[in-house]
Design a protein that fits this description.
The complex is a heterodimer of chains A (487) and B (264). Chain A is of the alpha/beta class. In chain A, 30% of the residues lie in helices and 28% in strands. In chain A, strands 1, 2, 3, 5, 6, 8, 10, 11, 13, 15 and 17 form an 11-stranded mixed sheet that branches. Chain A has a 7-stranded parallel sheet with strand order 4-7-9-12-14-16-18. Chain B contains 8 helices and 12 strands. In chain B, the strands form 3 sheets. Chain B has a 6-stranded mixed sheet, with helices on both faces. Chain B has a 4-stranded antiparallel sheet with strand order 2-1-4-5. Chain B is globular and about 60 Å long. The chains are: A alpha/beta (487), B alpha/beta (264). The A-B interface holds A 433-436, 438-447, 449, 453-454, 456-461 and B 54-58, 77-79, 81-83, 87-88, 90, 92-94, 96-99, 104-105, 107-109, 111-112, 115, 147-148, 164, 168.
Chain lengths: 487, 264
């Protein structure tokens, strides 16, 4: 069995470390990171360094106090080594340009080879590989063009920190209203120590003139391990937001605990797409990112719609349930997911659809792919509350197994409190059939191409929800992630 | 036989499936331009023969050799055999959900062209080729827009196999019980398709349980397979004889009688 990404990641990290020494650059640790461990002082330090207002510090401290009372959840179908929070540093500022490779020539060729396979555009490779951005292209001018166009439309799109400074009233009004600080262990932790993230505000009647992806992908700062994102779309507004990247991202932080909150008011629509490809650990299950994410959308207004699409191929552990609270009448929630686990990766992912308003509808399409010794669990809750007259849910949950050492698990929870509800659940599990493979081989198609073709077909329903260019990348990503999984 | 025209030569082929010997010494020669029918009762090894030649996993050759255009085909990977021009029309074509039929077939054709050192066809060129073939076979282009065999009726699946064969233009095609599960109209359509693909450079082996397909595809030679061996070979009339007498007749000593008759 072989994995392309694994040696790439480790050796690239080594490479960067070595480079740092070669250039003789010494980091002033005191000013860039806090010492490992978590206590109230650390929370205060983070808030102070970010020059936050008092109300936000208070909010963080309250979250911290709540977190102290909580325990790490253990109900997921995950086998997790205990996480030593006292060994983790809870804040590190983005690397300065001096600390980075100055051009692609200084980047590990293996990493570049992976980018090549994925078809990552040239200018993006530089950013992904951590090359000092200004050495490659003028990010300021690109960013400025987009910013101006968005500004003309009235859309606010900036980092969370900027939003706290420039639009405190909006942040204060919506922060924590979808995912309360007390929601769960990881959400509370994030609330106490979140680093940065994105903020989007689309005012009444505005259709965001572009996918908020291009700009984000070429211009975002390193997001850090405790990302916080807040997206608000007012009445009849519309936005499509794309997070993440298909190319393997370098990150030395093992624990990631992000929180994403979406608010859709009357007739508003939010489409949130994610491609997650964090370092999954090596082929023996050593290393890799632990990804504990709380994502939730609130369809607060009538006829609003929130749609989650995710392609999850990275991380050693994925714990993630993007959810919709369907509060408004006739509001719609959707969840489309592809989760792939290879080698020793583990994923416990799914969604929650909470029907509160009348005539609310939700749709769940989940595709789990397990290869190697990967363990893949779908966990989904559909709750129809008492008042949700005529609520509808359709769930389709398919699992595909590649090889004999992996596993697929399905944990659907359905709670119906109103007799007019209609809830449908379909589930299938299939193994990439020897007969399917042979059929392709007999037509002259190689085994590797056959596997990616079959997997791609399996995921089609989800891929077609992604923005076009991203669907192409997602397909390539699955191919690379599955290299050597068969045979 | 003219060795230049010899497409397939099987000598003393023994094969096991799951440790059980199914083929017990097959000898067979098929020349380009010929259509051979292999008939036999259930369990006689008909499908095994096709799968062994195509290289399916789990079918183990224990003795003998299979030469395809003079090459040792057993030493090749299944996809190599396909690229060399060997085609197996499946008895039960599998469904591949979400994979478009046209996309699949283009991937197959281009893999084969690449193998032969020919330029790959772009989608426009491919579409043109496909339309020509559909017309020849009288198949509706509705087939093109659907996923590979997904939700196809039995007849549609078999027609799709013949359509793939028409596009891939193999030198040797083995049709594994292509008639099974077809009503008479579908059978006729499939048979017509096969007949259009007969040609000087192509050999076709029709594996079937029933004679009825051979009313429409007239074979040059007929072989009777029983318990892993070819027990009788003859012309098209042998199939009629079998139909008349039934397979049980084989087991009751009919073979001796038949062979005497053939020799006479």
């Amino acid at each position: 069995m072989s994995s392309e990404q694994t040696p790439v990641e480790t050796s690239s990290v080594d490479h960067f470390v070595q480079q740092k020494y070669r250039h003789g650059f010494v980091t002033d640790i005191e000013s860039e990171t806090v010492p490992p461990g978590l206590n109230e002082d650390v929370v205060r330090w983070i808030s102070a360094r970010k020059e936050e207002p008092q109300w936000l510090l208070d909010w963080r401290l309250k979250a911290y106090a709540l977190w102290l009372e909580m325990k790490q959840p253990d109900w997921a179908h995950l086998n997790i080594e205990p996480i030593d929070l006292q060994a983790i540093s809870f804040f590190s500022a983005p690397k300065s340009d001096k600390d980075r490779p100055q051009s692609l020539d200084e980047v590990d060729p293996k990493l570049l080879e992976t980018y090549d396979k994925l078809g990552v555009p040239l200018h993006e490779r530089a950013r992904l590989a951590g090359v000092a951005v200004d050495a490659v292209f003028d990010s300021v001018s690109v960013g400025t063009t987009f910013r101006e166009e968005l500004k003309k439309a009235g859309v606010i799109f900036c980092s969370f920190s900027e939003a706290v400074k420039d639009h405190p009233e909006l942040v204060r009004k919506y922060l924590g209203t979808v995912v309360p600080t007390r929601d769960n262990y990881f959400a509370a932790l994030n609330s106490a120590v979140f680093s940065d993230g994105s903020f989007v505000f689309v005012p009444k009647g505005v259709r965001c003139p572009m996918e908020l992806s291009t700009y984000f992908r070429i211009n975002a700062a390193e997001t850090g391990q405790f990302e916080r994102t807040l997206i608000i779309v007012e009445d009849s507004g519309h936005v499509s937001y794309l997070e993440g990247c298909t190319a393997p991202m370098r990150d030395e932080n093992q624990l990631h605990a992000a929180v994403v909150e979406l608010v859709a008011l009357e007739d508003a629509e939010i489409k949130y797409s994610t491609v997650q490809n964090w370092y999954p650990g090596d082929e023996n299950g050593v290393g890799g990112i632990y990804n504990f994410v709380t994502k939730r959308g609130d369809c607060r207004g009538d006829r609003s719609k929130i749609s989650w699409t995710q392609v999850e191929t990275g991380s050693a552990i994925t714990w993630k349930y993007p959810s919709c609270v369907l509060r408004g009448e006739r509001s719609v929630g959707e969840f489309y997911s592809v989760a792939l686990t290879n080698n020793y990766q583990q994923a416990d992912t799914g969604t929650k659809m909470i029907h509160i308003g009348k005539n609310t509808r939700s749709k769940i399409i989940s595709k789990g792919i397990s290869a190697g010794r990967g363990q893949n669990a779908y966990r989904g809750l559909v709750r129809i509350s008492k008042k949700a007259e005529n609520a509808r849910n359709y769930t389709q949950c398919d699992s595909m197994l590649i090889g004999k050492g992996c596993g697929a698990h399905t944990f659907p929870y359905i709670e119906v409190g109103n007799p007019s509800a209609k809830v449908e659940h379909e589930a299938t599990t299939s193994r990439i059939g020897e007969d399917q493979l042979f059929y392709c081989l007999q037509r002259g198609i190689s085994e590797e191409d056959a596997v990616s073709m079959i997997v791609d077909g399996f995921c089609k329903q989800v891929f077609r929800e992604l923005p076009m260019e991203f669907a192409v990348e997602a397909k390539a990503l699955l191919e690379v992630s599955l290299e050597g999984a068969v045979g | 036989m003219d060795t230049n025209k010899l497409m397939l030569k099987i000598r003393n082929l023994h094969a096991t499936v799951g440790g059980k010997e199914i083929l017990k010494g097959i000898d067979l020669e098929v020349a380009a331009g010929e259509v051979h029918a292999i008939m036999g009762p259930n369990g006689s090894g008909k499908s095994t023969l096709g799968n062994v030649i195509a290289g399916r996993e789990g079918y183990e050759v224990t003795q003998g050799e299979v030469l395809y255009k003079g090459k040792d085909i057993l030493a090749m990977e299944p996809e190599e055999r396909a690229c060399e021009g060997l085609f197996l029309a499946f008895q039960y074509p599998v469904e591949i959900p979400g994979v478009n039929n046209t996309y699949f077939l283009r991937a197959a054709l281009n893999a084969q062209r690449k193998y032969r050192g020919e330029p790959e066809l772009d989608s426009m060129q491919f579409l043109k080729l496909v339309r020509e073939k559909l017309e020849i076979l009288h198949i509706s282009d509705d087939l093109l827009h659907r996923a590979v065999n997904e939700g196809f009726s039995g007849g549609e699946k078999k027609r799709n196999e013949i359509f793939q064969m028409a596009v891939l233009e193999p030198f040797l095609a083995i049709l594994d019980e292509t008639d099974s599960g077809l009503d008479i109209d579908a059978l006729r359509l499939v048979a017509e398709g096969v007949n259009r693909l007969r040609g000087e450079d192509r050999a076709i082996i029709v594996v079937t349980h029933y004679q009825r397909l051979l009313d429409h595809i007239i074979p040059d030679k007929v072989h009777v397979l029983s318990d892993g061996k070819i027990v009788a070979s003859g012309g098209a009339d042998l199939a009629l004889k079998l139909e008349d007498q039934g397979y049980t007749w084989l087991e009751q000593g009919g073979i001796q009688a038949l062979n005497v008759e053939l020799r006479a």
